[in-house]
Amino acid sequence: MSFIEQLTTNIKSPDGEDYTVTLGKNTVLIGDNEAGKSAIAEAAELARTGAAFGLLYRDKPVKGGDLLSALIPPGEEKAYAVASLDDGQECSWTLQDGKRPVRTGPNGVGLSVAELHAVLAGSEETKAKFFWHRLCEPKNKEHLKTTRVDEDLHGILDQNSEPDSDLVDLSVLLTKIGAARREQSAAVKASVIALESLGSIREVTDDEVTGLWDSLERAHARDLLRALYLTNKHDPATHAPNTLRHLVEQLGGQEAVQRIPETEKVKETIGEVILQRRLLRVGTVAKRGEKAAKNQSALLKDLHEQILEIMQRDIHLGCAKFQKKASSYLPKGESLHFAVDEDKLIIGLRKGMTATDFGTLHTALSGSTEARVIAAMAAALADEENALLVVDDRMWDAATLAQTMAALEKAPCQVLIMSTMKPRGRTRGAWTYINLAREEGQPLEIA
Question: Under 8 Å CB-to-CB from 186, ≥6 apart: which residues?
């Protein structure tokens, strides 16, 4: 593995000037709140991975320039972090105001205790996606179909998985299913809105339409009859009486002629009928779309439930190895409890363990106890080359901090701990201690 040995940055510098910090494979940053600990951690994360967790109230890694521009010191045009690695390589992150961030150098993997804490505070689905992706292997699609997914869901499984791959990452699949469910939900709402906007629609029969066209023809005939009558009245020499009598007979007699509606009224009625028919077609399409979206949504819901159940089962089957690894980063006599029980991920700490006693299980963790448990889990998850583990200040006490440092110095990644107090006991040779102090608006003091 490689780790950041020297870090130069101007992130959150009150005077805009850069500062340089020498780090070790394991480093503890000690200082009061606002002393500059988080600025160093964020600079290290950005130089190593291009993202930093928890900036601007986000409970996820942030890498967009529009958000990270807040790191540019007042009056300056850019923020930057340059990291020299112990193997002689260099990686850097630079953000010019109004532009996209640029990161160079070997890629690293970042994981912070704050990020893991946000995952554990999330839903069961959030936890399942996070841990399955890190603890389990992709599944063969055909094996899923034949053994673990209902046959009527095979089509929807194919639609949401990679078409050119026989393997399926279930955490990615679950994310796609969630997006597809939201799309179908939006389609149902759109159909409902469309149907409501149509108002009251009545069905128009073919006989009614035929009758209206007949009425229009009769209305036109009556208009012709009226025109001939007026012409003959104005000029009797037209000799139209016989024609008039014939038209009246064709229309059913004088009384029938009087009952024929006016042409404009018939046209208006025909227009309304045509509109009703069009609205009915639109309503039929909207109703059909609503039904299709609901059916699709139901299938997606069933697939979602089955995939989540499969993931939780896989996590449970594979949790022993992770539990053992994470426990190795806890103080002696303590062990991580990590299991899925009744579709819920249960995380706790066993204390007082001996060769013959499992000790007492504690699940209502808080403060420094919670911090060291999550730090141990993060160390086990960050078991990768070029990984950087950031442990934020979570109500350490001096003894717990010392115990946590002793356990984490065995982690196979670079570890950066932030604390407002010094650890108890002697200085540990495996750790670099950095004391930070800064008055408001003044440069960072590093000792």
Answer: none
* Sheet hosting strand 334-341, strand order edge to edge: 334-341, 344-351, 360-362
Total number of residues shown for the chain? 447
Residue boundaries of the structural domains of the chain:
1-108+386-447
Q: What is the pLDDT of residues 56-106, one digit of tens each?
A: 666 777 888 788 888 888 888 899 999 999 999 999 999 998 889 999 999
- Give Dmax over CA atoms of the chain in angstroms: 132
The answer to whether the CB of 2 falls within 8 A of the CB of 406 is: no
CATH superfamily placement of domain 1-108+386-447 = P-loop containing nucleotide triphosphate hydrolases (3.40.50.300)
- What predicted TM-score, i.e. pTM, was given to this entire model? 0.72
Which pairing describes strands 445-446 and 432-437: parallel, antiparallel, or unpaired? antiparallel
Q: What is the tens place of the pLDDT at every residue in 348-397?
A: 999 876 666 677 889 888 877 888 888 889 888 876 667 899 988 766 88
Residues 6+ apart with CB under 8 A from 19: 8, 9, 10, 13, 443, 444, 446
Residue 77 structure tokens:
């045009």
